[in-house]
Design a protein that fits this description.
By secondary structure, the chain is an alpha+beta fold. It contains 7 helices and 13 strands.
């Protein structure tokens, strides 16, 4: 129960755009379903995308949400499709997905990262599997070589953004610069410019990612450098093909995801995507 409401409450729902005043209740919703987003994460969608909220008037928490985040005209993300636990199975997520798909109707490729529970639902909406990744919790800094990588400098941004756009398939400078400002000590780049790692703060735990790299040794060095800079537990959304990077780290496997796409295949170079920015950001 939240806000004094009965779990079986059928209070009238209002579907509307999320505003800055809603951020505390949006964070309460993502926390209630076990996610790690803070207000800075939710603010990305207000700045660069759009969020639709279902509001039943509970003063502490929203009823449901969905967000869209365009990356140009050829690629966009759907995320934050969340429903308060006691309000599930009432069609709220279906209605919000309808809004999100309609909002992005002109986008060439619409992608999302699905949990196992959502995967079959999204398949029925026309989304197809692309690849899998897994959320891991690193309990302590990862051991790795210090060679190959160095802390990110301001002058590295053009190379970093070009590297990321090639791997991810679309430019996302605003997102990545925002991450770097939130946790600058976790930002490292390969000495030859072939890869990088960023990090950000979270509601409960810092998160490492995205990580883009050409080879496993560079990827390991980047993740190790970021985790040492954080100095404690961290989350990492690691491509399944790169799981060997954590084989001696004592990492805890938390949950799997499937990247899915609707319309054209997603652009980019999948093999370079070692760790994702997160299921909410791609």
């Amino acid at each position: 129960m939240t806000g004094g409401r009965r779990p079986d409450s059928l209070a009238p729902m209002q579907m509307r755009d999320l505003t800055g005043d809603d951020l505390p209740r949006a964070v309460a919703l993502s926390a209630a379903v076990g996610w790690n987003q803070n207000e800075a994460d939710w603010s990305v969608f207000l700045r660069d995308g759009a969020v639709r909220a279902m509001d039943d008037g509970d003063p502490a928490i929203l009823a449901a949400t969905a967000a869209v985040l365009p990356f140009g005209s050829d690629l966009a993300w759907i995320s934050m499709v969340l429903v308060r636990p006691e309000l599930r199975r009432r069609g709220l997520a279906t209605g919000l997905m309808g809004w999100a798909i309609g909002h992005l109707a002109a986008t060439r490729c619409v992608a999302l990262d699905a949990s196992p529970a959502g995967r079959e639902v999204y398949r029925r909406l026309g989304f197809a599997d692309v690849f899998g990744f897994t959320r891991w919790r690193l309990p302590a800094p990862l051991r790795g070589p210090e060679r190959r990588v160095r802390p990110l400098r301001d002058t590295d941004w053009p190379a970093l953004l070009a590297c990321d756009a090639a791997a991810f398939g679309a430019p996302r400078a605003s997102l990545l610069r925002g991450f770097a400002a939130r946790l600058p000590q976790a930002c490292w780049i390969a000495e030859d410019g072939s890869g990088f790692v960023l990090g950000r703060d979270g509601l409960r735990t810092p998160q490492i990612g995205p990580v883009v790299a050409e080879d496993p040794a560079t990827a390991r060095a980047l993740v190790a450098a970021a985790s040492r800079a954080i100095g404690g537990p961290a989350l990492l959304d690691l491509a399944d093909e790169a799981a060997a990077l954590l084989e001696d780290a004592g990492a805890e496997r938390l949950r799997p995801f499937t990247r899915m796409a609707r319309g054209a295949p997603p652009p980019g170079i999948v093999r370079r995507l070692v760790a994702m920015a997160g299921p909410e950001f791609g």
